[in-house]
Amino acid sequence: MWRLPGARAALRGFRAAVERHSQAEPVVDPMERAVVRCVPSEPKLSLSFSLADGSHKNMQRDQSEPLGRVLSRIATNALKGHAKAAAAKKSRKNRPNASGGGACAGPGSEQAAACEPVVKLYYREEAVAEDVLNVDAWQDGAVLQIGDVKYKVERNPPAFTELQLPRYIMAGFPVCPKLSLEFGDPAGSLFRWYREAKPGSAEPEGGGPSSLSPSSPSTSWTSTGVDERVYTPSNADIGLRLKLHCTPGNGQRFGPSRELESVCPVEAGPGTCTFDHRHLYTKKVTDDALIRTVSYNILADTYAQTEFSRTVLYPYCAPYALELDYRQNLIQKELTGYNADLICLQEVDRCVFTDSLVPALEAFGLEGVFRIKQQEGLATFYRKSKFSLLSQHDISFHEALQSDPLHKELLEKLVLNPSAQERVFQRSSVLQVSVLQSTKDSSKKICVANTHLYWHPKGGYIRLIQIAVALAHIRHVSCDLYPGIPVIFCGDFNSTPSTGMYHFVINGNIPEDHEDWASYGEEERCNMSLTHFLKLKSACGEPAYTNYVGGFHGCLDYIFIDLNALEVEQVIPLPSHEEVTTHQALPSVSHPSDHIALVCDLKWK
């Protein structure tokens, strides 16, 4: 039997990770906890618990190692911890020749040998043999005994692998923590928000997990009364920091809790935003017969945070309003306030997708997929209660044009003009295509496409080539792979209603003598006659503009829908011209992008 030389004094374990700070919290087992993380894809497992001196131990051991070696190591660590605590106690008493009150000495001493508390692992009340491998020994529900203290083994409990609050927090704008879980999910986890107590206020309220902040002994906290993942600060929170206490769970059990505090206090919001009035039309999620759809170019941070943007493109915009931390607050509030079923976004930075959009929209019931272009890309979100993702069929235009037999005829026409071909192949534009299935009626499927076409004013024929590839690919998915499913095609098409691109989409053909074939000049004219067989219309019509900057305004964004299967129930009005130009142009302190979101409610025919 493995034994530990050491004191008979009680060895305390680490605190129970889940604190009983409200009736909603999980019940805490009185036994101490030893947390084991063991996954098949990794060679080592981890074992976490606390020792007599209060120090936390996190051991990394091979899964194939015999149990006896781990128990021996625990014995050594426990004895060292106790010896250290005894020495500290003796030093504090400052008594010459003190014996330490009979405490055990270090390993190997006669005093140590006289104590010998037991270190054992039990499973179903039977001792686990020391030759059993770690991977099999450390089972959920096993009991680790160190001296007089018993630890309940929890194998792979829910745990946060990442937890972070946004740096910039404003009153009236939802705060959603970025989090990642292992062996758990946000829906099964518990959250409680606290605000910093105002100086001179009464004692902290709410029975919080701790009345004092670990980072600032003078800071006390009071409960906000909000037990949801998302918290929207009020004006009363301005000037105060926030704290979030969260417990990971999976619907069956809970893991160790964690706390985090905001770096900066809550700041005042910008006042009325361009989307506030629009939210009056979208207060609730639509019923199952409708599909609320949003298309929005949210302005990539990689473009907003350049000297050219600050001094040439958007000189009228306050510099702080171009910062990502500020704009993310507005983007999150705008998107969540639409209560959409489908959201197609363009100019999405990868970090914005993972760190901002996914946690914020996930908290409101949406799930998303991302397609990178170069520095930014496309994102499509769908409401999980209405849709499930069946398949994805994303393409890069230039790669598909060169390699997919579907575009063989178009490629043969393009190669007749080498300079035009080179320009088209240099472009990195992509098409995101997702096939969704209704969760209420499995016979209902829909093809959701999302794109951002080439931006240059002279790129008319490049956009014609790109849209021809896009429409052929969408038709292949919606007619060949999933026969007869309707299409919703969203995006920033960088084309006004007077262009060849728009004419081609709506009318199904483009003549070879259209002026856009010579958009780079007559010397590069690449005449083609193109057709497509989808029946599409612009669900939001042809607004005066969806892009409004200092030197340009025009309609560039569209939600094209399948005329045969879908119809428009409602178009959410765009902001008034007065709202758009309050701060001269877009973006501004009250609008996060140079584009305006298109929002409409669609229904099945």
From TrEMBL:
**For the region Disordered, what residue ranges are annotated?**
85-110, 198-226
One GO molecular-function entry: poly(A)-specific ribonuclease activity
Comp. bias intervals (Basic residues) = 85-95
Quote the protein name from its UniProt record: 2',5'-phosphodiesterase 12
One cellular component term (GO) for this entry is: mitochondrial matrix
What range(s) does the 2',5'-phosphodiesterase 12-like N-terminal domain occupy? 157-267
Q: Where is the Endonuclease/exonuclease/phosphatase domain?
A: 295-595
| One of the GO BP terms on file | mRNA processing
Per the UniProt entry, the Enzyme Commission number(s) are 3.1.13.4
**Catalysed reactions, as listed in the record:** Exonucleolytic cleavage of poly(A) to 5'-AMP
Q: Where is the composition biased (Low complexity)?
A: 199-225
Where does this polypeptide localize? Mitochondrion matrix
Q: Which Gene3D superfamilies match?
A: Endonuclease/exonuclease/phosphatase
Tell me where the transmembrane regions lie: none
Which family, according to UniProt?
Belongs to the CCR4/nocturin family.
Q: What class of enzyme is it?
A: hydrolase
